[in-house]
Write a structure and sequence with these properties.
Order of helices and strands: EHEHEEEHEEE
Helix content: 10-25%
CATH topology of the largest domain: Signal recognition particle alu RNA binding heterodimer, srp9/1
Number of helices: 3
Strand content: 25-35%
Shape: elongated
CATH class of the largest domain: Alpha Beta
Length: 142
């Protein structure tokens, strides 16, 4: 079965971002690899060696949030944009509230959590790292 895993690129603060996400989703990292752990890590500038090569955090069964630091020393460039959202479909209104409130710390709420015409409890925001999130709890059909 195919799964979708959002993959994020950061400008050197992946570890900080993922420690924040870990606190929100209450999980443990399934992968945590620094560039210094790679075969060519010693070839990188010293300031880049401790940056994150790959990290993943399970956020629901079968789904992981993944990321890396985009290093200029490796030819990467990154422009933080607004062309994506990560959608989370929690199991309850209470879980939706917990996740939304956690991600909203230091961020900017676009739409407060509320009941919607499409039968969901929905809200959207950008977290303090500029990552855009949609929290969408679907009410059980009667």
């Amino acid at each position: 079965m195919a799964t979708m895993n959002p993959y994020l690129n950061f400008l050197g603060n992946t570890e900080e971002a993922f420690n924040f996400y870990k606190s929100v989703f209450c999980g443990e990292f399934s992968t945590f690899q620094r560039f210094s752990d790679t075969p060519h890590g010693a070839d990188l500038p010293e300031g880049d060696r401790d940056k994150i090569m790959h990290i993943s955090l399970p956020i629901a069964p079968g789904y992981e949030l993944m990321a890396t630091d985009a290093l200029e020393s490796m030819g990467h460039s990154l422009i933080v944009g607004n062309n994506f959202y990560i959608t989370i479909n929690p199991d309850s209104e209470a879980q939706a509230d917990q996740i939304f409130q956690g991600l909203a710390v230091g961020g900017k709420v676009e739409m407060e959590l509320q009941k919607t015409f499409w039968g969901a409890y929905y809200g959207s925001l950008a977290d303090k790292f500029g990552v855009q999130w949609m929290i969408n709890y679907y009410y059980p059909k009667e």
